[in-house]
Amino acid sequence: MKLAVIAFTRSGSRYALRIEKAMEEKGAACRAFGKGKEAGQWGVRVVEESLGAWTGRMFRSCDGLIFVGAAGIAVRAVAPFVASKASDPAVLCMDEQGHFVISLLSGHLGGANELARTVAALVGAVPVITTATDSGGRFSVDDFARRENLYLDDLGLAKAVAADILEQRTVGLYSDFELYGQIPPELSSQKKGGLGISISLDENYDPFPETLHLVPRITVLGIGCKKGASAEQIETLVKKVLEQNQLSIHSVGKAASIDLKKEEPGLLEFCGRWKIPFLTYTAEELQKVECEGELSESEFVKEVTGVGCVCERSALKASGRKKLLQGKTAENGVTVAVALEEYAVHFV
Question: Is the pTM of this model over 0.85?
């Protein structure tokens, strides 16, 4: 998680630095900034540009922004950049005396509510959460999707789910995966009609007349390609393989290959286009991969790369599993294999 904290007074900067230190100790990349005539004396990074310009840069590059100061300053600063709850970062505001931490923007999908609770606990403040499902102690599909790393396919239906829950109407639940924990009372696996939630890798399957699809990001692509293969060639084969296995492209959580391909332009462009983390492994690492079943080994590939099969071994290595869902498929100088990470649904 990448965070930016900005303060406007000496008192506020002390809290900004406390937040920076505490969040860095928790593993987040957090930086404290100050904006003001005397900011150079506060021990924080001085913001020389306008607040609007700084906010725009941070809004685009950070997972969360924390303003230590008046809520009005925070609201006016972020207003020009607010686009969608699906993409906006978490935005918090804390008063400069450290009494309250307010979740202002992207409470659920952006994680602002959880971040507000975390920051408040670190500085001894009171978290202020105003989203209706949270204040009423009810199930929030947005927050659940973020916590369980699920792609949410329709924000309109997500809003409809929240509305039904607030009106104390039961929402249907279907899952291809094992469920752990107590299912929230607002959801029912027995309900078949009306509006419901489907947790599946197939976002074309509609178990309800109105289905909100939640797609686990657990599909791992192993990809090999000839030098110079284009992003379009790679994407064409990937989509073909995913469709054959009834997998949404939004279920792809990782792509992997041999380290010889770590700078391959087509691979990097494809992964960047779909925001898929790209991992690479050495031939020695791939050679040690175990598989339940036979791998599609090639002597020619082994001579070139040092390992007999790149795509299948890469998929297995990145997934942490020993079984492939789909073995090597080759087309136009590209090879693709698929594995799935282990997954189950957890209700808190």
Answer: no
